[in-house]
Write a structure and sequence with these properties.
Layout: H1 3-9, E1 19-20, H2 26-29, H3 37-41, E2 47-48, E3 56-57, H4 67-71, E4 77-78, H5 81-92, E5 98-101, E6 110-111, H6 120-127, E7 132-135, H7 145-162, H8 164-170, E8 171-174, H9 187-199, H10 218-232, H11 234-237, E9 246-253, H12 262-266, E10 272-276, E11 283-288, H13 298-302, E12 308-316, E13 323-331, E14 338-340, H14 349-356
Parallel strand pairs: 5-6, 5-7, 7-8
Antiparallel strand pairs: 1-4, 2-3, 9-12, 10-11, 11-13, 13-14
């Protein structure tokens, strides 16, 4: 059984609503900085927070729009099976331009009531294959205002990732159907497209081990897979600015970081790691794994030393390579936790406090 089929088998066969992964939810990780992204964007008020750190969803009221999936900063909300299967199937055979429309009756590749529910990662994946044209109705008179706000947010993030030049070439937002670019295929391209539609499977796109199950990071994994292809295939790489990477929203460690490790313990994506340097080196290393980081910003909000800068665009050619920051510190003689070299003590702050009691 393929990875995708295995994933579907674990879900309810008629599932039409998203699911929340409590282990990735920012409100499950901490309560000091409550996140309301999924609640604020939901037009039906499906998701609520009865008390701090507790998320509750009344899925009976869910329309399956998928806006909460797109809005979640930590990718704790997984897409509904019905929607994910349709988009994943389209992505698996994608080779050329894409037309997205929220207008009923308009011929398009992806017709949806809520184009704002399409994650920026998915939009960027489409843009790396060809021109993406998003045709909307009269948003000013539309009752789905949260959809427009979500779409604008996702397009803004896509613009950061792709860069202004590539974004302007590949993404078109319009209310005019005549703005759709004409498609012209050579005979070879037409034959290749036909063979692709009949021969490829969706699971072939997933760069995940067989024991894994796709979750809320599904579209991010697909985008990462495409970026890896661009870095390895010179012909494919011609679709992006020559010799450059893409801009990921990432936090970074400041000089006053003490390697306390709070950020590593609270990161919902497991994108932050801490490791001691060679014995006697007087160094610890803080590592950021860009391919895992979703840019939620939780680490910068909880850092007690304010030593983690908020996520900002960083150009990366190889997102799989960890970003290392060396911290001048030594191990505490009592608990082995890092102690800043300029602290004047061989004990960490916690141990000093415990021993003074």
């Amino acid at each position: 059984m393929s990875l995708w089929n295995d994933y579907l088998a674990r879900k309810l066969i008629f599932e039409s609503h998203p699911t929340i992964d409590e282990n990735r939810c920012l409100n499950r990780m901490q309560t000091r900085h409550p996140c309301r992204s999924c609640m604020d964007v939901c037009p039906a008020g499906v998701i609520s927070m009865p008390f701090a750190g507790s998320m509750k969803a009344d899925w009976d009221s869910c329309s399956g729009c998928g806006l909460c999936v797109s809005a979640c900063p930590s990718r704790a909300v997984s897409p509904a099976r019905i929607q994910a299967e349709r988009l994943f199937s389209y992505a698996s055979r994608l080779q050329h331009d894409t037309i997205i429309s929220c207008k009923n009756g308009l011929s398009s590749d992806i017709a949806t009531e809520y184009p704002g529910a399409l994650n920026w990662e998915f939009l960027c994946f489409l843009a790396l294959h060809g021109i993406v044209t998003i045709i909307t109705g009269d948003c000013a008179g539309c009752e789905k205002s949260s959809c427009r706000k979500s779409l604008e947010k996702n397009l803004s993030q896509a613009k950061i990732f792709l860069g202004e030049e590539l974004y302007s070439q590949r993404v078109i937002l319009t209310q005019d159907p005549s703005a759709v670019p004409a498609r012209r295929y050579t005979r070879r391209e037409a034959l290749s497209l036909l063979m692709t539609k009949t021969g490829r499977t969706a699971s072939a796109l997933l760069p995940l081990p067989q024991e894994s199950v796709p979750d809320g990071t599904l579209w991010r994994q697909i985008l990462l897979h495409k970026v890896k292809q661009l870095s390895k295939d010179p012909a494919e790489a011609g679709q992006s600015p020559s010799g450059s990477g893409f801009f990921w929203m990432l936090p970074h460690f400041e000089k006053n970081c003490t390697a306390c490790g709070i950020c590593t313990r609270i990161c919902p994506a497991g994108a932050l790691l801490r490791a001691p340097g060679p014995e006697g080196s007087g160094r610890y290393y803080m590592a950021l794994l860009p391919h895992k980081c979703t840019g939620c910003g939780l680490c910068s909000r909880v850092c007690p030393e304010q030593a983690m800068a908020a996520p900002s665009p960083l150009e990366l050619i190889e997102p799989d390579r960890p970003l290392l920051t060396a911290i001048a510190a030594k191990p505490c003689i009592r608990c082995k936790e890092p102690v800043p070299l300029d602290s004047g003590s061989d004990l960490c702050a916690r141990c000093r406090g415990e021993l003074s009691i």
